[in-house]
């Protein structure tokens, strides 16, 4: 006699009915508070499926199989690892400050993070879980040309340098959680609070970074002004020490062999030594005053 379905440990797909596989294949340490809260709440998708009416089949009260619910739970846990605490977007941080899409599977021979590597389930199960959650409205998406709901996928025009051939290169989609998911999990209010706290912290850090940059620019400007002032002082000092031709006494006549000429020159040198800042006209006037006669012809 065949045992009732509820008494059989395995279903026809070989799954244990009493065991729930909702843990990630890799342990991720040091997660933000919002991600930890989301991790703990996501198990409700499997343990309390009645609280998620959007996951039921359209027009039917029947719930989805436990394997599909586990796939949704595990897929969303893997996405939460790379969730931005403010925008609720899922992706890898890029050098330009934006997010790059998190691929479902990594190419062969690479170690790039992927959802499949973190969940430990097959790619087909993971894609079905993500698609089920998107159809339920738990993550934002858009309709493609065939009317299918999918995540926005950025593209870039790629030009081959050798042949000049133009082609579009697609990138992994940047997914985003919807508030409806947090509402169904009962953590919408707390997630809003954590989002606001994180937003304030980021604004504070950005403000402090701007203030630090302004201080550094002001310090650099002050150092430049000091350098220019020191350079100007050095030029003025060199100019003051340089003898000027206009301030030099008139040269002696080539034939100044008389005593009066020699006397004039001696007094001129004496006056110049006593008053080095006097112009030539003042020196001549002082020598003329002392000797009572003008310069020799």
Characterization of this structure:
There is one protein chain. With 297 residues, this protein is mostly helical. It folds into two domains: 194 residues; 40 residues. Helices cover 46% and strands 7% of the residues. The chain has nine helices and eight strands. The strands form four sheets. The protein has a two-stranded antiparallel ribbon with strand order 1-8. Helix 8 crosses helix 9. The protein is rod-shaped and about 135 Å long. The N and C termini lie far apart (150 Å). The model has no long low-confidence stretch (mean pLDDT 76).
Q: How far is it from the N-terminal to the C-terminal residue, by CA?
A: 150 Å
Q: Evaluate the radius of gyration.
A: 44 Å
SSE-based structural type = mainly alpha
> Biggest sheet: strands side by side, in what order?
1-8
- Parts with pLDDT < 50 across at least 5 consecutive residues: none
The count of DSSP E runs of length 2 or more, i.e. the number of strands, is 8
Number of helices: 9
Strand content: 5-15%
- Can you give the helix content as a percent range? 40-55%
Order of helices and strands: HHHEEEHHEEEEEHHHH
Label the overall shape. rod-shaped
Q: State mean pLDDT (0 to 100 scale).
A: 76
When the domains are counted, the total is 2
Largest beta-sheet characterization: 2 strands, antiparallel
Provide keyphrases for this structure.
297 residues, mainly alpha, 2 domains, two-stranded antiparallel ribbon, 9 helices, 7% strand, rod-shaped
């Amino acid at each position: 006699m065949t045992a009732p379905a509820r008494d059989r440990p395995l279903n026809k797909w070989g799954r244990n009915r009493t065991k729930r596989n909702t843990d990630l294949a890799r342990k991720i340490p040091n997660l933000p508070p919002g991600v930890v809260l989301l991790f703990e709440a996501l198990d409700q998708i499997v343990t309390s499926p009645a609280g998620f009416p959007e996951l039921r089949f359209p027009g039917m009260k029947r719930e989805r199989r436990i394997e599909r619910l586990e796939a949704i739970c595990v897929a969303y846990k893997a996405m939460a690892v790379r969730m931005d605490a403010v925008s609720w977007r899922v992706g890898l941080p890029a050098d330009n400050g934006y997010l790059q899409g998190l691929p479902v599977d990594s190419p062969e021979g690479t170690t790039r993070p992927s959802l499949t590597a973190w969940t430990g389930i097959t790619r087909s199960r993971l894609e079905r879980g993500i698609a089920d959650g998107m159809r339920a409205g738990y993550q934002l998406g858009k309709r493609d040309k065939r009317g299918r709901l999918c995540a926005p996928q950025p593209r870039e025009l790629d030009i081959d340098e050798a042949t000049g051939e133009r082609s579009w290169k697609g990138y992994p989609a940047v997914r985003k959680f919807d508030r409806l998911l947090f509402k169904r999990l009962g953590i919408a209010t707390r997630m809003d609070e954590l989002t606001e706290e994180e937003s304030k912290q980021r604004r504070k850090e950005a403000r402090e970074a701007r203030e630090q940059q302004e201080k550094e620019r002001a310090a650099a400007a002050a150092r430049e002004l000091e350098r220019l002032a020191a350079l100007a002082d050095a030029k003025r000092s060199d100019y003051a020490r340089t003898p000027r031709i206009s301030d030099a006494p008139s040269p002696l006549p080539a034939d100044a062999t008389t005593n009066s000429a020699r006397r004039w020159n001696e007094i001129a040198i004496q006056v110049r030594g006593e008053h080095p800042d006097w112009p030539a006209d003042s020196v001549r006037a002082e020598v003329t005053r002392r000797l009572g006669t003008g310069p020799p012809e």
